[in-house]
Structures are given as C-alpha cells and as structure tokens.
Design a protein that fits this description.
By secondary structure, the protein is α+β, with helices and mostly antiparallel strands. The protein contains three helices and nine strands; from the N terminus they run βββαβαββαβββ.
Length: 180
C-alpha cells in the first residue's frame, strides 16, 4: 500500500525538504520519512502539494501525459476582459512553448480563504479579481506566465486541486495522509 500525503503548502515554502535561503522546506511541516513531492509548486505559490513514497504514483501524478487536471485560483491585477479570457482558453504562446487550452472563469474571492503572509501588494488605482484556471500540464511558472501574457499579472496563486485530490478542509501548513 502506498502512502499519499496532501499538503496545503503555505507561501514561502519550497517543494523540497531542505530549506533554501529565506524559504522554509517541507521538513518544517512534514515529519514523515521517505515521501517525495509529486511535482512542485513555487515558493511564492500556495496550495496543494502531493507527496508519496511510490515512485510510479509520483510519476503518474506529475507527468502531463496522464492529463490530471490541476485547478488554480489566481488573484490577478485588473479585471480580465473577454479577449483575455479567450486567449487563455485558446492557449497562450509563451515564447518557449504554447500552452494547451485552459478552462478559465471569473470568480468571486474564494469563501473562507486564509490570509496570505505576507499580504499581496495592492495598488490603489488598480483593482484585483479572481480567476479559476484548470490546466492539464504544469510547466515552470505556467499560470503566472499565462495571465501576465494576457495582460493580467498574477498577484496570488493557489493550487486548489490535482485530479480528484483537493485542499478541502486543509489550512496552510496542514497535511493529511491517505493510503492508496
């Protein structure tokens, strides 16, 4: 039986057990030996990180070939117009690759959302809004690069789910073990 941990990674934590510079590592939160992250989440992003002791399961979760949908909640600078949403839905040319089409919708700020520490930067003259984006890949800083290319830089990024696994009920820094 494989071990699978769902972890709500806070802002400022690396997707590795060793800390680096100003960032904390997973060892500061997860005292479980011999589990490894299935994919990664940048230190300045929050949300679901899956860890497992099963190498084949780790590969299946992280590999875009298996097309596990990843749902992100992005707080962006400005209020995206229909053209920007269409661009995200079509796929975005980021120079080094063209993203697969994303499912995207505007949404209200998520209910029960925890405060980020430190808070995002606000500009008095520019409003912010929230998007829910679902992608089936996960290249380096992809969602941030997509929203920026569409003209709406991401200020806060939370991965809500991967496949059938989600953050439901987990506060930042909490983890839950499942046996699969």
């Amino acid at each position: 039986m494989s071990r699978l941990l769902l972890f709500n990674k806070p802002y400022g934590v690396l997707s590795q057990f060793t800390a680096g510079g100003r960032w904390q590592g997973l060892k500061d939160f997860i005292p479980v030996p011999d589990v490894y992250a299935a994919g990664r989440l940048d230190a300045d992003s929050e949300g679901l990180l899956i860890l497992t002791d099963d190498g084949a399961l780790q590969k299946r979760i992280a590999d875009p070939a298996h097309k596990l949908p990843k749902v992100y909640l992005a707080q962006v600078e400005g209020i995206p117009d229909d053209a920007a949403l269409a661009q995200l839905r079509k796929g975005v040319d980021l120079g080094d690759f063209v993203t697969r089409p994303a499912k995207v919708r505007k949404m209200n700020e998520p209910a029960g959302l925890w405060p980020r520490n430190p808070p995002i930067r606000y500009r008095k003259a520019i409003p912010t809004s929230w998007l829910e984006l679902t992608i089936n890949e996960g290249k380096n800083r992809q969602v941030r690069r997509m929203t920026a290319k569409a003209g709406y830089p991401t200020l806060r990024l939370i991965r809500w789910s991967i496949g059938d696994w989600s953050l439901n009920g987990l506060t930042p820094g909490e983890w839950l073990e499942l046996h699969v």
